[in-house]
TrEMBL record:
EC number, as in UniProt: 2.7.1.20
InterPro entries documented for this protein: Adenokinase, Carboh/pur_kinase_PfkB_CS, PfkB_dom, Ribokinase-like
Function: ATP dependent phosphorylation of adenosine and other related nucleoside analogs to monophosphate derivatives. Essential to sustain methyl recycling.
Reactions catalysed according to its record: adenosine + ATP = AMP + ADP + H(+)
Broad class of enzyme this protein falls into: transferase
Protein name per UniProt: Adenosine kinase
Keyword Nucleotide-binding: yes
Pathway info: Purine metabolism; AMP biosynthesis via salvage pathway; AMP from adenosine: step 1/1
CDD domains: adenosine_kinase
Domain spans labelled Carbohydrate kinase PfkB: 26-335
UniProt source species: Morella rubra (Chinese bayberry)
Classification via Gene3D superfamilies: 3.30.1110.10, 3.40.1190.20
Gene Ontology cellular-component terms listed: cytosol; nucleus
Similarity comment: family membership: Belongs to the carbohydrate kinase PfkB family.
Length: 341
């Protein structure tokens, strides 16, 4: 089958613990909406507090895994996608395996004996979300697992690779291995800026792998943080996208394309020194459930058409469609079949 294993993802598999909270809760734990951070000591009691809320839901998450699952759902071709990451040997880990298999993704998890499966607190206020990740086992991924023949076979088989920036905090050497393979084999390597803290505190790791990126995804806040960190002195998302495209490349096979989402505002695509803007699907406020997974779903929709060699315009349309479906549901979940044409 031509499409088997065509798209591979690698990242931090996390179980989302999602609950509706209030402003007071955000203040208590020093949280900002539309932000993603790593849990510190002060955040740890929050997970139990959320688990005791009536509205709590447990949903398989993790940025890259969300995007891969959405791409798989949009493609409706069993086994078109594969995914690698680290989980614990526990109930949550078993849940994750079951969930991924049902989604049709070929997962090769590394199972860590010592740490529990990672979790991500998703605090929802008025449809907007704040994410606090407690990586646990996800943080234990080692490139030795990637190098095992049965896992490296997934890399060999794939033609497209997607890794969220969050994985830079865990296993930059694994990312480097895949990036170098992609460049040497004329395949397509794609990453996401993922969060302001990645651009700020993992700048060196991000810069090391940036030359290998054929596509850079992100949202407007991340793009502006990236600009600030690099002293570009511009907040203009279109300018920033063009500057990211011009960053030196490790391989000349593919030109870099930068795709920046801006919530309800148009998607910015920079390519060949030009910028195109694509409107998103407008959604009445009362239909918004939560924005958790919206950016991940956009990438998943985009990738589903990109691996079918559709135009960038069609890829963006599919991304907007997938994001629109996901924000009308809790977490990164979707109906049985897509309704995209």
């Amino acid at each position: 089958m031509a499409y088997e294993g065509i798209l591979m993802g690698m990242g931090n598999p996390l179980l989302d613990i999602s609950a509706v909270v209030d402003e007071e809760f955000l203040q208590k734990y020093d949280l900002k909406l539309n932000n993603a951070i790593l849990a510190e000591e002060k955040h740890l009691p929050m997970y139990d507090e959320m688990a005791n809320k009536n509205s709590v839901e447990y949903i398989a998450g993790g940025a890259t895994q969300n995007s891969i699952r959405v791409a798989q759902w949009m493609l409706q071709i069993p086994g078109a996608t594969s995914y690698i990451g680290c989980i614990g040997k526990d109930k949550f880990g078993e849940e994750m395996k079951k969930n991924s298999k049902l989604a049709g993704v070929n997962v090769h998890y590394y199972e860590d004996e010592s740490a529990p499966t990672g979790t991500c607190a998703v605090c929802v206020v008025g449809g907007e979300r704040s994410l606090i990740a407690n990586l646990s086992a996800a943080n234990c991924y080692k490139s030795e697992h990637l190098k095992r023949p049965e896992n490296w076979a997934l890399v060999e088989k794939a033609k497209y690779y997607y890794i969220a920036g969050f994985f830079l905090t865990v296993s930059p050497d694994s990312i480097q291995l895949v990036a170098e393979h992609a460049a040497a084999s004329d395949k397509v390597f794609m990453m996401n800026l993922s969060a302001p803290f990645i651009c700020e505190f993992f700048k060196d790791a991000q810069e090391k792998v940036l030359p290998y990126m054929d596509f850079v995804f992100g949202n407007e806040t991340e793009a502006r943080t990236f600009s600030k960190v690099h002293g570009w002195e511009t907040d203009n998302v279109e300018e920033i996208a063009l500057k990211i495209c011009r960053w030196p490349k490790a391989s000349g096979t593919h030109k870099r394309i930068t795709v920046i989402t801006q919530g309800a505002d148009p998607v910015v695509v920079a390519e060949d020194g030009k910028v195109k803007k694509f409107p998103v699907i407008k959604l009445p406020k009362e239909k918004l459930v939560d924005t958790n997974g919206a950016g991940d779903a956009f990438v998943g929709g985009f990738l589903s058409q990109f691996v079918l060699e559709k135009s960038i315009e069609d890829c963006v349309r599919a991304g907007c469609y997938a994001a629109n479906v996901i924000i009308q549901r809790s977490g990164c979940t979707y109906p049985e079949k897509p309704d995209f044409n």
